[in-house]
Amino acid sequence: MRKMKKKISATLILCLALLVGLTACGGGKADNTADQGTGNEAAGEKVTVNMGFWGTAQDLKVYQDAAATISEQYPDIELKIKQYPSSEQFWNTLPGEIAAGVAPDFIKISNEGAFEYINKGLFTPLDELISSTQVDMARFPEASMKIWNVDGKQYGVPNSDMPAMFLINETMWKNAGLGDYPTTWDEVKAAAKKLNTDKVHGMIINLDAFHITNYVKSFGGGWGNGKTINSPENVKALETIIDMYNDGLAVTPKALGFGWDGEVFSNELGAMSTGGYWYKGFLKDANPDLKYAAIPVPKGTTNGSTMSSDAYVVLKDAKNKEAALKAAYYMTNDKTQTEFMELGYNPAVPELSKQYFEKNPEFKPVQPALEYSTDYGYPTDTKRFTDELVKQLEERILGGSGKTAQQILDDIQKQFQ
Questions:
Q1: Which of the pair, 196 or 91, is modelled with greater confidence?
Q2: Could you give the CA distance from residue 189 to residue 173 in angstroms, rounded to a whole number?
Q3: Which residue, 325, 327, 331, 317, is CA-closest to 129?
Q4: 260 & 397 share domain
Q5: CA 330, CA 12: separation in Å to the nearest integer?
Q6: Domain holding 343: CATH number?
Q7: Looking at per-residue confidence, does 55 or 389 come out higher?
Q8: Matching Gene3D superfamilies, A to Z (predicted)?
């Protein structure tokens, strides 16, 4: 899913609030040897588990294939798949489904914005279920598990991980006579000066929370779920962004009439940008002849970037939570993960992840970032925070508000005390 489509709508948040209210009113290898059952084996009955997700037709086929084979590991579970056209439709539909008693038992969701749902009690903590079902969570790397661990409780079964990237137009880079790719923002600035022309900007900086957060992470900062918004590290990151605009090195997509950074990059109007694995699929259609390099997000003061992670989470009102966890865990089996790998996802299973980077050699330089990339850390009121962050930076960079990075973050911090 491309980042320009990942903002959470106001409608979604309202529906989430309704959903939580309804909930409150309502009542690595596959684990083949430790199955504790679901309590229905004696009667020979099957437990029906429902999974909800939003994604492509190709995703649906992978899930349907997995549902058809789950009985090979869990003979007492029948798995049914429901596809929603979009995340917004999912959250808009879910309250009514809960009220009618037909909501999914578990879903697949991205970590960008997930803290809000966890904090409002929508998902079931999995720790006791992991113990009772004995699913092998050691299958997943520590970095993946941490993404879905909040206040010492595990909320997700990791499915895929991918660090943020820094994309470079390879042809422009070589034509400018530049050598090794940059590893720091100072090196990026120096390169941008040489890449700047009458038609091309050295840097594309999309004033979007995803991109801003990657600058923040590279200076050792983070939002701390709202507790560290105006930290010195975060201030330094925003100063770096503002300086690049002040020096004439960077452009926003909006200033050029585009919706997101990938469009500027594909039209070869910008030479460098933070971005992600979704660039590959987009560029394949938008500009198949464009040659690019993908490297880790450059350092401010440290190695740091965001991790985009999908996971399976069990809803608070799941009818049989143990069976739901087992079914969710089954989705991480090697066959299913390999099929998703063919669709461009990096599996959250180390051995399969190695294969992913072999199949996608253009992303190989980014592989080390799997070790240090971390969650977004947005406050609970995610949409309000990201909207305010973008608004204030746009007013500074596009509107000339004159506010310093410190003033911007101090102002936002006051709103999220």
A1: 196
A2: 13
A3: 325
A4: yes
A5: 29
A6: 3.40.190.10
A7: 389
A8: Periplasmic binding protein-like II (3.40.190.10)
How many domains does the structure of the chain reveal? Answer: 2
Give exposure, 274-289, as e/b (b: 16+ Cβ within 10 Å): bbbbbbbebbeeeeee
| DSSP 8-class letter at 254 | G
Provide the pLDDT for residue 44. 60
The verdict on 316 and 341 lying in the same domain is: yes
Q: Are residues 230 and 335 in the same domain?
A: no
Q: Are residues 207 and 299 in the same domain?
A: yes
Whether residue 16 lies inside any domain: the answer is no
Is residue 3 assigned to a domain?
A: no
Residue 258: domain span:
165-306+376-414
Q: Are 383 and 8 spatial neighbours (Cβ–Cβ below 8 Å)?
A: yes
Residues 274, 136: one domain?
Answer: no
**Residue 69 pLDDT:** 97
Tell me the average pLDDT across 355-359: 94
Distance of alpha carbon 384 from alpha carbon 48, whole angstroms: 38
**pLDDT tens-digit map of 227-286:** 999 999 999 999 999 999 999 999 999 999 999 999 999 999 999 999 999 999 899 999
**AA identity, residue 108:** K
Alpha-carbon gap, residue 302 to 70, rounded angstroms:
44
> In this predicted structure, what is the pLDDT of residue 372?
96
| Cross-sheet strand order for the sheet of 77-84 | 77-84, 47-54, 106-110, 307-314, 157-163
CA dihedral 215, 249, 5, 265 (to 10 degrees): -120
Judge whether 223 and 379 are in contact, CB under 8 Å: yes
